[in-house]
Amino acid sequence: MIRLIAAALCALFLFESAAMAQDRVRLGYGRLVTNDLIGDGHDRWRTASIASSRVWGPDWTGSTPGGFGQLLELRLGAEIISPENITTPGVGDRPYAGSISVGVHTHFQTALAEFALGGDLVFTGPQTQLDDFQDFVHDAIGGRDLSSGVRRNQIGDDVNPTGVAEMARTLRFGAAGQVRPFIEARAGVETLVRVGADVNFGGFAQNTLLVRDPATGHRYQTIGNDLAGFSFMMGADIAHVEDSEFITESHGVELSDARSRVRAGMHYQSAEGHRAFYGLTWLDKEFKGQQDSQIVGSVRLHISF
User: Fold this and answer.
1) Could you read off the pLDDT of 182-196 as tens digits, one per residue?
2) 33, exposed or middle or buried, with CB in 10 Å at 0-12, 13-18, 19+?
3) If 264 and its partner were Cys, which of 14, 164, 234, 304 is the partner (CB 3.0–4.6 Å)?
4) CA 256, CA 69: separation in Å to the nearest integer?
5) Alpha carbon distance 29, 17 (integer Å)
């Protein structure tokens, strides 16, 4: 894991140096932390993730530029996926998987559509040491450790180049309402095509740059605004899933070819710039032996000093 962190830090340094050399300035930073313990209270399946983005580009005017590559996002992420029981998993349950990703994406728009295009390197397996990290957290807050069998059966070490493309259209209604249908394609660690829509009420999405969290579909702020008050957002999507490195027949698990998500959240921003977000996401079953769907919670806190 130390090597992966070092690689991510080198990527951040080189990316920032290259971005500044092209007359770009740092425009913003965003993150989202997700865990099922702040959702349905269980510790299973899509159990924990963090997404983090740093954005560079020309001076922000309230919307993405019209040129490909002008606005760049360095995206870092980590996710833990586990069987329902991490000590004695049931027959047919999904294997444990840890992943760490680093990627570069660009956001731009034309007269008719908004685009987000990019690629990530997704590292999986024991090399991420996320299994050790999960045990460390469970020892600190109380919880079960991974059994040796779960560790042995986890997804193996690999590096998965992954491409991501999203196209969307924002339609405004009322004083501060937006509905944004989108289509997304992913190819790599998971290969799928997804269609859905997001709805926002309030200042959360006004003149900001929002980035989609891969695990939940929530869109989190990377470039904010100074509009104080509460905002409400909700969304849903459905995907056709062609392949997943997290669910393989070699582990005795059969992938479901359809996957749905439904989400809702509340954002608050004070006049002083303090921001808080909490959201819930219902995640559909992802493999044939999964006994139930799940609900995960997502949170972001920003205190302005």
Assistant:
1) 999 999 999 999 999
2) middle
3) 234
4) 35
5) 16
**How big is the chain, counted in residues?**
305
- Residue 288 to residues 66, 79, 93, 291, Cα–Cα distance (Å): 43, 21, 9, 8
Beta pairing class for 72-82 and 25-35: unpaired
User: Between the CA atoms of 136, 137, 139 and 143, what dihedral angle is there, to the nearest 10 degrees?
Assistant: -130
> How many angstroms separate the CA atoms of 77 and 152, rounded?
24
User: What string of DSSP letters covers 15-53?
Assistant: HHHHHHHTT-EEEEEEEEEEEGGGTTS---EEEEEEEEE
Decide: residue 142, CB within 10 A, 0-12 exposed, 13-18 middle, 19+ buried. Answer: exposed
**Cβ atoms of 83 and 291 closer than 8 Å:** no
Strand partners, 80: 48, 98
Distance separating alpha carbons of residues 270 and 62, to the nearest angstrom: 20
- Token pair 């920032």 is found at 16
Cα separation of 144 and 270, whole Å? 39
| pLDDT tens profile 14-73 | 555 555 556 789 999 999 999 999 999 999 999 999 999 999 999 999 999 999 999 999
